[in-house]
């Protein structure tokens, strides 16, 4: 059938929505992108784009922009939280699609370069969707209705589209017993572009430079019983962060002293949606399969979704067939990634006597088989949804 001339409404102007709009427009679809805010939200903090996501950005024609606005990561270094001593260094490949460190606002700017021909409508908050009839439609706040051949919900964790596609199987997310603080502090241009992970009992801290070393991204995760709300818009208390990581050494105390603005997020585990499509409407990215941040794959899965969905629709005999084939091709992989992220959280938070033993094994494996953990996740990073 092909998507040329297909009318598409994309709900949500984040990574998944912009990438999907661009991928479909490049194939000739007539796309309108709806965003509830007054403009693309150029806030947030750091993201890690692994090769599987970078290949999509390249295929969208934005590889040069990614290289300009992001920074290639040289390594991931695992460290003991108490002292900052190195446990294992994983060197990132310097060739190919590569691993990139980038501010979320800069990633949005990179992807916006693929929106040629896409109509964007701001202050367009979708409050309902209808999948009945030959053309699905959405209702905007204020009552206006818009219809299209295809409606795509890229509207994130609190998706309006997801429950409409899963009316009988909506399961509530549950609190994982973990909270995450996120902050940006000043950095130095001579800081190596490396991600450092400081591991401690029941907590860990990840940090890396952004924007050519002008900023340092900090994400600190602690296990605790106290519930915290989900979403990055909740201010955190600096005293609580410093108390939680008081036993950490190396550069961590100095970094935390520099924290000014701080955000707190309760980490919730959401089930992968059972149905990603209904009629001629579908969901993608976090709306379909939210993942915890411990494999840094949320944005990368959204990019994979966007490209693979556009290609499936372009080669399928019809919209419904294309959506069904897309979910079948994607769902098992996404579930595997979500499960890997769940396991990684536990690995970072080991306590004695397991932690010293695990660190010893990591050091030994690093000497015997360099970059063994990186190879272990080759099934994530080597995957190429843009390959013919």
Could you explain the architecture of this structure?
This protein is of the alpha+beta class. It has a domain at 7-72 and 104-171 and 270-346: FAD/NAD(P)-binding domain (3-Layer(bba) Sandwich). The chain contains 12 helices and 20 strands. α1 (15-26) runs parallel beside α8. It is globular and about 60 Å long. It starts with 6 loop residues before the first strand and ends in a 7-residue tail after the last helix.
Strand content: 25-35%
CATH topology of the domain at 7-72 and 104-171 and 270-346: FAD/NAD(P)-binding domain
Please outline the major beta sheet: 8 strands, mixed
Q: CA-to-CA gap between the ends?
A: 18 Å
Can you tell me the CATH superfamily of the domain at 7-72 and 104-171 and 270-346?
A: FAD/NAD(P)-binding domain
How many helical elements? 12
Q: Can you list the strand order of the major beta sheet?
A: 6-5-14-15-16-13-18-17
Category by helix and strand content: alpha+beta
Global morphology = globular
Mean of the pLDDT scores?
90
According to DSSP, the number of beta strands is 20
Instruction: Please tell me the CATH architecture of the domain at 7-72 and 104-171 and 270-346 by its name.
Output: 3-Layer(bba) Sandwich
Helix fraction by DSSP (H/I, runs of at least 4): 25-40%
Low-confidence blocks of residues: none
């Amino acid at each position: 059938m092909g998507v040329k001339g297909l009318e598409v409404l994309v709900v949500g102007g984040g990574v998944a929505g912009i990438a999907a709009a661009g991928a479909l427009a490049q194939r000739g679809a007539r796309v309108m992108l709806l965003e509830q805010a007054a403009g693309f939200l150029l806030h947030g903090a750091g993201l890690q784009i692994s090769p599987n996501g970078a290949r999509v950005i390249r295929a969208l024609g934005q590889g040069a922009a990614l290289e300009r606005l992001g920074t290639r990561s040289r390594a991931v270094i695992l460290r003991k939280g108490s002292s900052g001593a190195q446990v294992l260094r994983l060197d990132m490949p310097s060739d190919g699609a590569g691993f990139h460190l980038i501010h979320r606002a800069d990633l949005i700017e990179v992807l916006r370069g693929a929106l040629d021909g896409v109509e964007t409508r701001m202050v367009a908050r979708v409050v309902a969707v209808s999948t009945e009839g030959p053309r699905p439609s959405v209702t905007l706040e204020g009552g206006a209705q818009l219809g299209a051949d295809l409606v795509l919900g890229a509207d994130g964790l609190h998706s309006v589209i997801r429950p409409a596609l899963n009316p009988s199987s909506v399961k509530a997310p549950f609190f994982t017993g973990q909270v995450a603080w996120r902050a940006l502090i000043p950095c130095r241009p001579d800081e190596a572009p490396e991600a450092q992970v400081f591991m401690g009992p029941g907590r860990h801290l990840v940090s890396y430079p952004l924007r050519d070393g002008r900023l340092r991204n900090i994400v600190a995760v602690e296990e605790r019983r106290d519930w915290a709300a989900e979403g990055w818009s909740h201010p955190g208390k600096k005293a609580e962060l410093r108390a939680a990581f008081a036993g950490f050494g190396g550069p961590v105390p100095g970094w935390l002293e520099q924290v000014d603005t701080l955000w707190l997020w309760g980490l919730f585990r959401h089930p992968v949606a059972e149905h990603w499509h209904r009629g001629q409407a579908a969901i993608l990215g976090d709306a379909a399969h939210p993942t915890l941040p411990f494999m840094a794959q949320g944005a990368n899965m959204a990019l994979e979704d966007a490209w693979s969905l556009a290609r499936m629709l372009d080669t399928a005999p019809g919209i419904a067939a294309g959506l069904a084939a897309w979910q079948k091709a994607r769902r098992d992989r996404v579930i595997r990634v979500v499960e890997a992220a769940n396991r990684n959280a536990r690995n970072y938070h080991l306590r004695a006597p397991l932690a010293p033993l695990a660190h010893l094994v990591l050091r030994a494996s690093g000497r015997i088989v360099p970059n063994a953990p990186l190879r272990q996740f080759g099934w994530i990073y080597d995957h190429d949804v843009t390959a013919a």
